[in-house]
Amino acid sequence: MSTQPSHRAGTQLAIVDAHHHLWDLASGHYPWLQDAYHGPAFFLGEYEKLRRDYLADDYQRDTYPYRVVASVHIEAERSRMQQVDETRWLHEVHERSGTPSVVVPHVSFVQPDRDEVLAAHMAWPRVRGIRSKPVTARSPQERVTGQAGTMQDPRWLDGLAALEGYNLSWDLRVPFWHLAQAAEVAAAFPRIRMAVNHTGLPLDRSEAGLAEWRRGLEALAANPNVYVKLSEFGLAGGRWDADSNRRVIRDAVAIFGPERAMFASNLPVSSLSASFPAIVEAVLEALADYDDAAIARIFAHNAIAFYRIGD
């Protein structure tokens, strides 16, 4: 008789995907996908592969045969003139397909009509949080601290504070060299739940880079309102480094504990480096020493609680 832990049967594990995207290029405008692209190469791989519709059927196909019992849609950078249109469209998609379960839309914390857009989002029952990316430096060597739109901008902080009145969480997406600054924000707003996107984007897998990433995560984890998403382990050019990914996953869970870590796929962007089964199995392998209760929290229960799925 096998003594293998039951959570090793990944296709039988109940999964709540805490971070994915959908888009329909005919019904909405996604500038980063549809407009002429003149910037540097997309940092996670072959950008052209993303310039197509990605609908609920595509998501369900990519996650089969795993038991994804619920999912969280994170804003997909639809035109900032169509922020509420994206929320409406996602509710229509849910009515047809059951996917996604809840929605995290966008509003810029510094846009003039911020309060009106927030109120319009709240008219839709599946809205649970907001993702609003602060202005960040392009590299660890660049400095933008205190500039307009950064995490030190009083106007930006005022926008973040507005989430508390709506019981909305904040999805925090910054590169690893801004994690320590984000921890200062988390400490200043202890009643706002925050989810670190993409494991804090540990893009530099050198010893020095990982040390800085760990310091940032440790500073964030000191705040009990902050959770971490175990997602997007791909590297530049679509590279998948199994050894360092294993280390990143283990370190992130060791820092936050299994009570504040959430599995997330980042589909379809993550498909530039790995399939959904590969991502699930990589996380399970990295966390092989954790018991079934911890695995159930990481893969489902924490996201259910954080995003109030079922409310």
TrEMBL record:
Full protein name: TIM-barrel fold metal-dependent hydrolase
Signal peptide segment: none
Species, as recorded: Paraburkholderia terricola
Domain of life according to the entry: Bacteria
Residue stretches making up the Amidohydrolase-related domain: 16-309
Organism lineage: Bacteria, Pseudomonadati, Pseudomonadota, Betaproteobacteria, Burkholderiales
Keywords for this protein: Hydrolase
InterPro entries from the UniProt entry: Amidohydro-rel, Metal_Hydrolase, Metallo-dep_Lactonases
PANTHER family: AMIDOHYDROLASE, BLL3371 PROTEIN
Molecular function via GO: hydrolase activity
One Pfam assignment: Amidohydro_2
UniProt-listed Gene3D superfamilies: Metal-dependent hydrolases
Similarity section: Belongs to the metallo-dependent hydrolases superfamily.
